[in-house]
Amino acid sequence: MRRILSMILILALLAAIPVSGQAAELSIVQPRYTYIRSFDRDLTIDTSTGVADCYAMITANANYPVEVVCRFEVYWGGEWTTLRTWTDTGNMMAVISETYDAPDGFNYRIDVTAYVYDSNGNRLEVTGGITECYYPKN
């Protein structure tokens, strides 16, 4: 009997120990949108050519007007400075796919904001995010 109680106690203690993989999964926060179906952004720099590829996209759940604004920025003199701003609008979808010749040796980022509007132009939902990339000096 004592052996069975010891086994039950050990199993109970093992069950109470958190598993690190589960804790990591629980810490991920997924945004919940009402009007936005998907939002994506990406920044890559080809180190052989110095060309930065900037990508941003928003799609809406229904036939709503959408807008995406992408600011391409460089970290210079202790602050982020906008080098170029692109905007796209559409019905249900807006996409930006642009390039920029980026000098090496700097940090770059895209700061993207995306909006969904109703038919009267009232903002229903907004999301955004920043993607950063370092282009090392050759």
Description:
- With 138 residues, the chain is α+β, with helices and mostly antiparallel strands.
- It has 2 helices and 7 strands, in the order ααβββββββ.
- The protein has helices at residues 2-16, 20-27; strands at residues 36-46, 51-60, 65-76, 79-91, 93-101, 106-117, 123-135.
- The protein is elongated and about 50 Å long.
Strand and helix layout:
Elements: H1 2-16, H2 20-27, E1 36-46, E2 51-60, E3 65-76, E4 79-91, E5 93-101, E6 106-117, E7 123-135
Antiparallel strand pairs: 1-2, 2-5, 3-4, 3-6, 6-7
Estimated radius of gyration: 23 Å
- Assign an overall shape: elongated
Span between termini: 72 Å
Helix-residue proportion: 10-25%
- The computed structural class is alpha+beta
Main beta sheet, described? 4 strands, antiparallel
Question: Widest sheet: strand order?
Answer: 4-3-6-7
Helices and strands, in order, run as: HHEEEEEEE
Give the percentage of residues in beta strands. over 45%
Overall residue-averaged pLDDT value = 85
Spans of at least 5 consecutive residues with low confidence: 13-27
Q: Would you report the number of β strands?
A: 7
Number of helices: 2
Summarize the structure.
It contains two helices and seven strands; from the N terminus they run H-H-E-E-E-E-E-E-E. With 138 residues, the chain is α+β, with helices and mostly antiparallel strands. The strands form two sheets. Strands 4-3-6-7 form a four-stranded antiparallel β-sheet, with no helix packed on it. A three-stranded antiparallel β-sheet has the order 1-2-5, with no helix packed on it.
